[in-house]
Amino acid sequence: MSIISDDEFFEGQTPLKSIEQAKKETAVNAEDTDFDRNFENTIRPKTFDSYIGQTALKGNLKIATAAAKKRNMPLDHLLFYGPPGLGKTTIAGVIAEEMGVDIKITSAPALERPRDIIGILMSLKGGEILFIDEIHRLNRVTEEILYPAMEDFYLDMTTGKSQTVKTLRVPLPKFTLIGATTKAGELSSPLRDRFGIINRLEFYTMEELTQVVKRTAGILDIKITDGGAKAIAKCSRGTPRIANRLVKRASDFALVKYNEEITEEVAKESLEVLKIDKYGLDNTDRALLKLIIEKYNGGPVGIETIAAAIGEDVRTIEDVCEPYLLQAGLLQRTPRGRKVSPEAYRHLGYEVKNFNAQQALF
Ligand SMILES: Nc1ncnc2c1ncn2[C@@H]1O[C@H](COP(=O)(O)OP(=O)(O)OP(=O)(O)O)[C@@H](O)[C@H]1O
Ligand SMILES: [Mg+2]
């Protein structure tokens, strides 16, 4: 696997992201951190068999990769979208492994100038995979270079100046572009239309996350009981990245305080110390829900107002907090803003009858 934008370069390109990350290194934030990037590479599944869950997606991809191999053709371009930490980068690596080809990894913020993308495209060999993370952040010029490259495998290059300008059509080897994004809605439609296979990654079930936890513990040589694995899975917000991080934290806790093994009690105690509740909510999630309950009678309230009040940016709320709160049924999106559910009232210890009275007003 060749990495075009290594971590240092990536951080240099997006200082904003690293500041945000430093601020948000809580245990159940699904965004990746430096710690994750190093740790994740050791536990990332490399094959369809070790990639847990996402059954429908895996079924489709197995057929697509087998067919491409039979035809001796590269795979169609693929787009993966879904909240952070669900396995978009991981599945791209699995596909490369299954196809037996190299994968070049980059990220939209690193493709600032036309020569960045041109250089990468021209370095590709037939059948190789180009993975572009955060693909919704590509600039217009880069996107327009990609259109003919994706569709007909050529680059239009101009040489010379003003009157002597000539357009040169440079053929490219047939390659597969894999794009990943947490925000499919922000992709332009010409770009989206050029992907042959578009897939959404789903949150993982409790059973799947329990398997993730056990698999990770096995790789890291950490002893864990069934009960311990389940307790961690339950608080992982349907997200393998969080499950893995919690295994690591619980293991540190077990090592220092107990007999090294993560039992149900050890897991629960460590989750308590990390202030993670049974839904896997952290302080930011709770602050968000409490704000809507206490100050806005359960909502609806606009996302900008929420962001300003809890001191988070809108993007973090939309990409990181909200998808899981919506999925867990604690929050609802309405045309007039965000509303909490009766379950959110119950979970945070508020009286539900309050909720009903207030909601009747809307
Ligand atoms: N299906 C899976 N089975 C087992 N582990 C998984 C699976 N999917 C993801 N993981 C684990 O979760 C971690 C995070 O996954 P990954 O980096 O692929 O997420 P992502 O969707 O690309 O996130 P982001 O949007 O932040 O880029 C990986 O290191 C991997 O170990
Ligand atoms: Mg990723």
Molecules bound to protein: adenosine-5'-triphosphate, magnesium ion
Mean pLDDT, as a whole number?
88
Instruction: Tell me the radius of gyration.
Output: 23 Å
The overall strand count is 10
Question: Which CATH class of the largest domain is shown?
Answer: Alpha Beta
Strand-pairing-aware structural class: alpha/beta
| Helical coverage, percent range | 40-55%
Query: Do you know the CATH topology of the largest domain?
Result: Rossmann fold
- Uncertain ranges: 1-24
Oligomer: single chain
Instruction: Please state how the strands of the largest beta sheet are arranged side by side.
Output: 1-3-4-7-2-8
In short:
This protein is an alpha/beta fold.
Outline the structure in words.
- This protein has 362 residues and is an alpha/beta fold.
- It folds into three domains: 44-200, Rossmann fold, CATH 3.40.50; 206-273, Helicase, Ruva Protein, domain 3; 283-360, Arc Repressor Mutant, subunit A (Orthogonal Bundle).
- 51% of the residues lie in helices and 13% in strands.
- The chain is built from 17 helices and ten strands.
- Strands 1-3-4-7-2-8 form a six-stranded parallel β-sheet, covered by helices on one side. Strands 5-6 form a two-stranded antiparallel sheet. Strands 9-10 form a two-stranded antiparallel sheet.
- A hairpin with a 6-residue loop joins strand 5 and strand 6 (166-171).
- The protein is globular.
- The structure holds adenosine-5'-triphosphate and magnesium ion (MG).
